[in-house]
Amino acid sequence: MLPPRQDAAYWRYKNCFVQLFFARAKGGKFILRVEDTDRERYQEEALQDLYDTLNWLGTKWDEGPDVGGDYGPMFSLREQSFTESMQDSLLNQDMHIIVSAHPRDLISLEKIRKK
Q1: CA 28, CA 112: separation in Å to the nearest integer?
Q2: Considering the domain boundaries, does residue 66 fall inside one?
Q3: How far apart are CA 43 and CA 38, in angstroms?
Q4: Angstrom distance (rounded) from CA 20 to CA 44
Q5: Bridge partners of 64?
Q6: For residue 39, is it within any domain?
Q7: Residue 76 domain-assigned (yes or no)
Q8: How far apart are CA 3 and CA 55, in angstroms?
Q9: How many domains in the chain?
């Protein structure tokens, strides 16, 4: 088998391996998600290049766009659409709370609450 194209970013694959090893070490799943919200630069060929390169490197993901799974959607744009539709639904039902806190602060509050 020939190696995939060489123009893919090194750090992208390095990050995949770090996440894969972390997931395996913790008994978790390695889930491949695709960042596709920048529609001007998105290229379908790049997605296939990603699959080809990761397969060539011997990387196996438990869930992803090509294999499905419980933690979908596997594309950020589809998740964004889902999140927006849920947000609209909650707003329409007057079941929302507007929070202007930074996520880091919310995590800190959650840790305090659990004590």
Answers
A1: 26
A2: yes
A3: 10
A4: 24
A5: 68
A6: yes
A7: yes
A8: 10
A9: 1
